[in-house]
Specification:
The complex is a heterodimer of chains A (519) and B (230). Chain A has 519 residues and is an alpha+beta fold. Chain A contains twelve helices and twelve strands. Chain A folds into four domains: 4-151, no CATH class; 172-285, 2-Layer Sandwich (Beta-Lactamase), CATH 3.30.450; 287-362, Helix Hairpins; 367-514, 2-Layer Sandwich (Heat Shock Protein 90), CATH 3.30.565.10. Chain A has helices at residues 31-51, 57-74, 77-95, 109-155, 160-175, 203-215, 259-326, 332-363, 375-385, 387-390, 410-426, 482-492, and strands at residues 179-185, 188-194, 219-220, 232-237, 242-248, 371-373, 395-398, 406-408, 434-440, 444-451, 496-501, 507-514. In chain A, a hairpin with a 3-residue loop joins strand 9 (434-440) and strand 10. Chain A is elongated and about 150 Å long. By secondary structure, chain B is α/β, with parallel strands linked by helices. Chain B has two domains: 4-120, Response regulator (Rossmann fold, 3-Layer(aba) Sandwich); 128-226, Arc Repressor Mutant, subunit A. The radius of gyration of chain B is 18 Å and the shape is globular. Classes of the chains: A alpha+beta (519), B alpha/beta (230). Chain A binds chain B through residues 346-347, 350, 354, 357-358, 361, 369, 371-374, 376-381, 383-384, 395, 397-399, 401, 405, 410-411, 414, 436, and chain B through 82-83, 85, 103, 192-193, 196-197, 199-200, 203-204, 209-213, 217-221.
């Protein structure tokens, strides 16, 4: 008898179905089955021979019927029909007197033969139908599972390539064969845009894949066109166009996909194509939205910047032309004041342009040049750069000696400090104190910049960091970019920045830099 | 003899103000408008110092440095834009002496020019350079004694080497790579975080407030500069 492992899994319920069930290439009906049938009939004959002295011949026929049932539950219909005829013959030969001939002594046995044959054939037919239904149910179950798995994977992807990658992965598992999806670029299949290197196809087959993409018909192994190809190529047909080609390299044995799998493959490619198409249109919508936002940003930037650029330019032009036309007549101290304002306004202009450039660079995804730095050094460099603007103030910096090194882009983090110090100087009275204080927690380094200025209004905490937002205080000029830049830089460092009210008046800007679990 | 400065700069407004500044400070000067002309003038006039703009119309300013350094060690001070640390480092590593970021104040430019000229001046034979003072620091390299105020401070061998190198280049920026190379040797030029830790230690020993250094200054993204007078 064949071992149960080699038999079709009819006793398995769907629940205990292994995940990779669908991936088995169904074994072809072989001669082995007929062997099994003959063996069972032979075994039954031995039992019948043993029982022959004790039972009437008609009852021995029942034993043979049991044998047919056994064959029908295990083997194909053809094998059990053969077993039916074989059983009748064996019954005649071994159990009906005279023994060991096909002759029959009493003609009433003919009725026994006919009845036995009919019953055996009916059993065969019914049993194999039930079994076919069971197999079908299992198939349907695994197919549904595979499709569900595919749709679940596809629903979480937001990029076309990821969708293709997910589909190829699931298909590869389900069909038990290497699967690659090729995506088009500029109307042609691009063999660089492939989901895996499992299946490298030859130049000749690239042409087949391109043909499949162009005409939308399957080709390759097991198909009408190009059956000699190594792989099967299936177009991914979306609602409006073909979005790619799926290539499957069937098993090493050279089997092709059988009908059920073909059907499943169609469902697969369909679902994948729809998902890719959906992703493409979503991306297009997102692009359009971003375009709009960029436009909006550009116009608000223009209005904010044009004012901030013109004001210092106007004072520079005014002061310079005054000096040129009336220089001789002006008192020396007036001349000095005008010169002072030219240089101050020019510096302001320079800072504004610098901020705009920084913002643009940060928004276009600037690359961080991170390394480990003592925070003290970055604070020191920022204070040095800000020295002219901080003149006459008491500025204290407390950075503990044992503060861990921070993993940052020193130039950018320095810019954050410069912007915060500039704000502190701008929004507080000349001569008032500014404090910088750093502390460490196990997970982060925290840095405060504290001033004794006017602070900011209740409810402004978040808005302060928006682009072009200016605090509700009069008499202070600026483009509203400084804090937005700080936030962008800290976000790029996966850190944070917040604004707090300071007890006793003033503002605290608090930076947090994560320590990434380093010592 | 007035020092001769060659300015290689294409922008007429910047040339105009450089001219005024240099004349007021008693320098002689020549002008070149392109990289090509700059290299030729440097060879023909043998200036005491070159002021070089990196953004020239015909060729990259870095090529001028490379060209001049093939045959001369004359001081080169680079004019560059803020935010282009990569260019600054490239220029310094190619052999430029220092840089000034645009827009700059005249005082800063003149300080850089003076420091670069000092480097090129022949060293006094009497060995006066073995004792250096800045702020409260008194460094005697002959006796190997460093004191801050009245107290002697003990430097580790690496800190001592680092201070020596910085003093050798006093007033001028030194890139991370140059410092690592001179203190630790050419095989350690990528390990700038060690350098930063040593600089921090040196500051703690020499500076009054290490978070606001007066002398051992950081040039973010580029390197360090030891300023003697402040």
């Amino acid at each position: 008898m064949a071992s149960p492992a080699e038999l079709p899994p009819i006793h398995q319920t769907a629940a205990e179905l292994p995940e990779e069930e669908g991936s088995q290439w169904r074994p072809a009906v072989g001669w082995r089955e007929f062997g099994v049938a003959v063996a069972i009939v032979g075994f039954v004959t031995l039992i019948a021979l043993a029982l022959r002295p004790y039972l009437a011949a008609t009852n021995l026929a029942m034993v043979y019927l049991l044998g047919v049932v056994a064959v029908a539950t295990r083997c194909s219909r053809r094998a059990s029909v053969m077993a039916s005829f074989l059983s009748v013959a064996a019954f005649d030969f071994f159990c009906v007197p005279p023994y060991y001939t096909f002759q029959v002594a009493e003609s009433e046995y003919l009725i026994t033969f006919v009845a036995m044959l009919v019953v055996a054939l009916v059993i065969s037919a019914q049993t194999s139908r039930i079994r076919a239904q069971a197999v079908h149910a299992v198939d349907r179950e695994s197919r549904t599972k595979a499709l569900y798995r595919l749709s679940r994977r596809l629903s979480t992807t937001t990029r076309v390539f990821d969708a293709a990658l997910a589909a190829a992965e699931v298909a590869s598992e389900v069909f038990g064969a290497p699967v690659t999806i090729f995506l088009p670029e500029d109307g042609r299949i691009s063999f660089r845009k492939r989901t895996s290197d499992q299946l490298l196809i030859s130049t000749a087959e690239e042409k087949i894949a391109q043909g499949v993409f162009d005409h939308g018909r399957k080709a390759g192994k097991g198909m009408k066109s190009f059956p000699e190809a190594a792989a099967t190529y299936v177009p991914l047909k979306g609602a409006t166009r073909i979005v790619g080609v799926m290539a499957i390299l069937p098993g090493q044995g050279g089997e092709t996909l059988h009908e059920d799998q073909q059907h499943l493959l169609d469902l697969f490619t369909n679902q994948t194509a729809v998902a890719i198409e959906r992703t493409q249109s979503q991306n297009a919508a997102a692009d359009a939205r971003m375009q709009m936002e960029t436009e909006e940003m550009r116009s608000s930037l223009l209005s904010a910047v044009s004012h901030d650029l013109r004001t210092p330019l106007a004072s520079i032009t005014g002061a310079a032309s005054t000096l040129r036309s009336q220089g001789e007549k002006l008192a020396p101290e007036v001349r000095g004041e005008l010169l002072e304002s030219i240089s101050e306004e020019a510096l302001r202009l320079s800072r504004l342009v610098g901020n705009l450039l920084d913002m643009t660079r940060l928004e276009s995804g600037m690359e961080l040049r991170r390394d480990l730095y003592p925070l003290e050094e970055i604070v020191g460099a920022a204070l040095q750069r800000m020295e002219p603007q901080l003149a006459g103030r008491e500025v204290t910096a407390s950075v503990p000696e044992d503060l861990p090194l921070v993993n940052v882009d020193d130039v950018l983090l320095g810019q954050v400090l410069v912007n915060l110090l500039e704000n502190a100087a701008k929004y507080s009275l000349p001569g008032s104190a500014i404090e910088i204080a750093a502390t460490a927690t196990p997970a982060a380094v925290q840095l405060d910049v504290r001033d004794r200025g006017r602070g900011f209004a209740e409810g402004e905490e978040k808005r302060l960091f928006e682009k072009f937002y200016r605090g509700k205080s009069e008499g202070v000029r600026g483009a509203g970019l400084g804090l937005a830049i700080c936030r962008a830089i800290l976000t790029a460092h996966r850190g944070s920045i917040e604004a707090l009210h300071r007890e006793g008046g003033g503002a605290i800007f608090r930076i947090r830099l994560p320590l990434d679990g380093r010592p | 003899m007035k020092p001769l400065v060659l300015m290689i700069e294409d922008d007429p407004q910047i040339r105009r103000f450089l001219r005024a500044t240099l004349a007021a400070e008693d320098y002689q000067f020549h002008e070149a408008l392109t990289a090509e002309e700059g290299i030729a003038q440097a060879a023909a006039r043998q200036p005491d110092l070159v002021l070089l703009d990196l953004g020239l119309p015909d060729r990259d300013g870095l090529e001028v440095i490379r060209g001049i350094r093939q045959w001369s060690q004359m001081p080169i001070v680079v004019l560059s834009a803020r935010g282009q640390e990569k260019d600054k480092i490239a220029a310094l590593d190619l052999g430029a002496d220092d840089y000034v970021a645009k827009p700059f104040a005249v005082g800063e430019l003149l300080a850089r020019i003076r420091a670069a000229l000092r480097r090129a001046a022949p060293v006094a034979a009497d060995g006066a350079d073995t004792v250096i003072r800045f702020g409260d620091v008194h460094a005697d390299f002959e006796k190997r004694i460093i004191t801050v105020g009245r107290e002697e401070v003990h430097l580790t061998p690496n800190e001592y080497r680092l201070l020596q190198v910085l003093i050798k280049h006093a007033g001028r920026v030194v890139t991370h790579r140059q410092l690592l190379n001179e203190v630790w040797g050419p095989q350690h030029t990528e390990q700038s975080q060690y350098l930063r830790v040593y600089v921090a230690q040196l500051r703690r020993k020499l500076e009054r407030d290490p978070a606001r250094p007066r002398h051992l200054q950081t040039e973010p993204g580029v390197g360090y500069r030891l300023t003697l007078d402040s």
